[in-house]
Fold this protein.
Amino acid sequence: MYDFTIIGGGIVGLSVGKALLERFPNAKVLLLEKEKTLASHQTGHNSGVIHSGIYYKPGSFKAQFARKGSQSMTEFCQRYNIEHDICGKVIVATKEEELPLLDNLFDRGLQNGLNIKKIDSDRLKEIEPHVKGLGAIHVPMAGIVNYKQVSEAFATIIKENGGEVKVFEEVTNIKETNDGVFIDTNNATYQTNMLINCAGLHSDRIARMTGYATDTKIVPFRGEYFKLKPEKRGLVKNLIYPVPNPNFPFLGVHFTRMIGGEVDAGPNAVLSFKREGYRKTDFNIKDFAEVMSYGGFWKLASKYMKEGLDEMARSFSKKRFVESLQELIPEITEDDLVPAPAGVRAQALKADGSLVDDFHIIKGKKSIHVCNAPSPAATASIEIGKYVVNQIPEQTHLREASVGGF
């Protein structure tokens, strides 16, 4: 019998496990992951950016948790000697019509409490010599890290403090009763006082399996990348982003220097025909049928038809992909790029066709479900973990830690 069982061994689930043992140091905590390794999906395919929170609606969970999370993530990396770099980024306006959008984004960043600066083209050239832009926002607190290494550190902390982490445990059935929650996996049945669902791409299914019909469905979007060839990495110093298209809910293709020196270019955003579909050819009939039969998807598709077709064109045409990159760095050529691994974003979509644009966490009788945690969830993972654990009511049989932290 466990006090808490977490489903999902990505960075959010692992952060929740860490936070549980901070608050309840004597608790029996179990984490179940269906893959053979932790952080195999969204976390392991993450671009590695420590986000500032500039993009998000003031007062939203994303804005609050990203701003606090960038600080707590940096402090965690310093404490546990995880390589990271607070290198800063630029968000660049390349057209006259983007300048008012840049001003709006700058105002939003100020509302979110960020120490950012508007810079002109001359200053932009000093920071990123190969970028062509009319103006930009410099975001000095943005950084890079390997979130798989962070996840491994979270797992070590959990195990060192008495928690259990089990892989190859795919959940097949859940029954929530007054006596607790019974979780069937491919290997065993586990009983727990409280279930915490951090299943990412399958979070909606775990919620339904537990008996909670959410008003959303996870729709997977694949983000495809290229990498700069080693001899071309000097074209990018740190992080270079375009001004987001206000008519499309993704950030647009950008350049990201990674820990280790590689430079990623991308991503686009196309529908994946499998929830864990990292290749164009990946297909799962159940996943595909769920999306195609969901009215919310067709409402979304009709709303963003033009932008969606542009994203698909970039998916099948390297030339079109490079043309988007050339808006930021004109001297980039097709020969400078090689294919890189893709990622899949678990995006919650409502029946009315609107994307859930904030972290979405719901409470059951004996369960908590993290039902939408796309980017910047990795940056915000420590803060999400704290928030989830703070939703747990006082339990007399568990003694809280007198001081937080390990």
